[in-house]
Write a structure and sequence with these properties.
A: mainly beta; seven-stranded mixed beta sheet; four-stranded antiparallel beta sheet; 11 strands; 0% helix; B: 113 residues; mainly beta; six-stranded mixed beta sheet; 12 strands; 50% strand; globular
């Protein structure tokens, strides 16, 4: 089992560029989430999904879009990168409440 | 809404000291409770969990007990090692709804030899 796979691991963008952070899981988990972690801070929820075709906003959704066309994939799109989006992004997936979430290894994004 | 509050860090201890990191939560119903650990430069790993009142989760010498009467899930270890240096996050998942993982702010732990 690969678990939760995030690509790329590192990315540098210029202000105004767009890009997609990829997230894939092979555990048939229904629930998936994206978090960002700023230096010295905790994790903030960007978007989440409760199954294929169903997504919703977390606490910091502005500037990001998501889609969930399959159970396995949950890409995060940055529409027009800003320096404030410099962060480490984590994708996570779960079967549900009693199992907890499995996290990917993260994407470190720098916007210059 | 649901929330998790952890003791403020950073926490610095000597090797073989006793560790407690306090965690309290606010939630309706019966959430599941978790401790995650993040080692420097890495992602988050599930350390332990408890899914109902009075359950004790344990792993790698760490343990935490789900106390519904005090809405707490304190993390403890009897004798810490340098390799335990990391950031520890307390979290919950509500029993109904979107199954979102709600985190505390994290506690940075440093163990000195």
């Amino acid at each position: 089992n690969a678990g939760v796979t995030q690509t790329p691991k590192f990315q540098v963008l210029k202000t105004g560029q767009s890009m997609t952070l990829q997230c894939a899981q092979d555990m048939n988990h229904e629930y998936m989430s994206w978090y960002r972690q700023d230096p010295g801070m905790g994790l903030r929820l960007i978007h989440y999904s409760v199954g294929a075709g169903i997504t919703d906003q977390g606490e910091v959704p502005n500037g990001y879009n998501v889609s969930r066309s399959t159970t396995e994939d949950f890409p995060l799109r940055l529409l027009s990168a800003a320096p404030s989006q410099t962060s480490v992004y984590f994708c996570a997936s779960s079967y549900g409440q009693i199992y907890g979430y499995t996290f990917g290894s993260g994407t470190r994004l720098t916007v210059v | 809404g649901d929330s998790v509050t952890q003791m403020e860090g950073p926490v610095t201890l000597s090797e073989e000291a006793f560790l407690t990191i306090n965690c309290t939560y606010t939630a309706t119903g019966y959430p599941s409770l978790f401790w995650y650990v993040q080692y420097p430069g890495e992602g988050l790993q599930l350390l332990l969990k408890a899914t109902k009142a009075d359950d004790k989760g344990s792993n790698k010498g760490f343990e935490a007990t789900y106390r519904k009467e005090t809405t707490s899930f304190h993390l403890e270890k009897g004798s810490v090692q340098v390799s335990d240096s990391a950031v520890y996050f307390c979290a919950l998942i509500q029993s109904q709804g979107a199954q979102k993982l709600v985190f505390g702010q994290g506690t940075r732990l440093t163990i000195n030899p």
